[in-house]
Amino acid sequence: MGRFVLRRMLQAVFTILGVMIVTFLLFRVMAGDIAAAHLGERATGRTKAEWLHVHGYDRPQLLNVHGRLRITDLTEGPGSLLVLDVAEGNAADSLALLPGDDPAEARKVRLGRYVFGLDRNTPISRLTGGKAPSGQIRLKTADDRELLVDVKPGWTAGELMDGINDSPANAGKLVTADIAEPSVAGAFDSQFFDHLVKAVTFESRSLTDNRKLTAIIRTRGNHSLALTVPAMALGWLASMVISCAVAYYRDTWIDRVGVFLSVLGMCMPFLAFMILGQWLMFQIAPKHAFGLASRGDIYVPVAIMVIAGIGGSVRFYRTIILDEVNRDYVRTARAKGLPLPAILFKHVLKNCMLPILTNLILAIPFLIMGSLLVETYFGIPGLGDLMLSSINGRDEPVLSGLVFLSALIYTVGLLLTDLSYALFDPRIRLQ
What we know:
431 residues; alpha+beta; MetI-like fold; five-stranded antiparallel β-sheet; three-stranded antiparallel β-sheet; 18 helices; 57% helix
């Protein structure tokens, strides 16, 4: 069994890695300009570059083997190096030249974009993200001395650096421009590995309020569990009782009515149950129809989840029980005079536990992650509602963390399902 568990755990690692790769491609690579989604389309290039740098979205996507232009202040003074546009020009904004991250880097300004294969012959358009820079940039050193540099759209990176280094007012005494080369140690300083590490360690922070993901899960997870655990327990208990009853009275009007209601419940959309349930509550007790102002507000969505799911469960469990009832050992037990209720509840259910456990354990991820539709419709601030709001608000770190949590719980549930097979059926050997 130990080898089996290790093999399944290794498979789970690759499964979760695949999920995180797909999540990265969907939410970061294919999703478009995330800075514009949070700052607005009219935000300047430098403003977007600053936002992307603060949240780690300015780094290369897979491996950091890129270079960046770097301007270093050589003077001594109390201030910091500034790069500004002159008059109506847009050169500094197009280049997205950003100040250093901390006081120790206050005398350095770096290009806000990483450029693959950056060298002196790289067109300046790659440094500006395709924009055509124009005008002059003004470099203000730490000792308040200023340097004006012309920037032309057709320049290369080398010509831009020469324009700064060889300026008559500079001559290599005030500032120096060069290219920050990539390093082996920083190769994994990329968006993908940041996305993966933060998701696995739950160190992600919301882009909207900067709250840590673990704090958000602790706050919202309780509401999801308060909704889904009672719904699952009551739904499973009611489904088993009804399934056993209709199986016990098979081919009678009880069985036919039970099957008819089960199929009817399966055919009705889940949204119809929510609309009808909330409408009834607005007629009976409007204050309990939406939100969680009081503890009793959770009863209505729990009841709706139980009623909406009971049809499919009864149909599934009834089929399993009837298939088991037709086996030889049941006919032998009935021929010996053993009462059918004893056969049904003592022996048949025990032998039906494998598919029942499969159906039950695979529902565990949905217990923790909550119900997206129900939480959103009834105003329950759980994890399901959080996932939907994260999609709408482009809160990618929270969304990635929730996807990782779902994948982790799901793979653990699959492992528990396999282990439960060996526990309930001695004939099964896990190898």
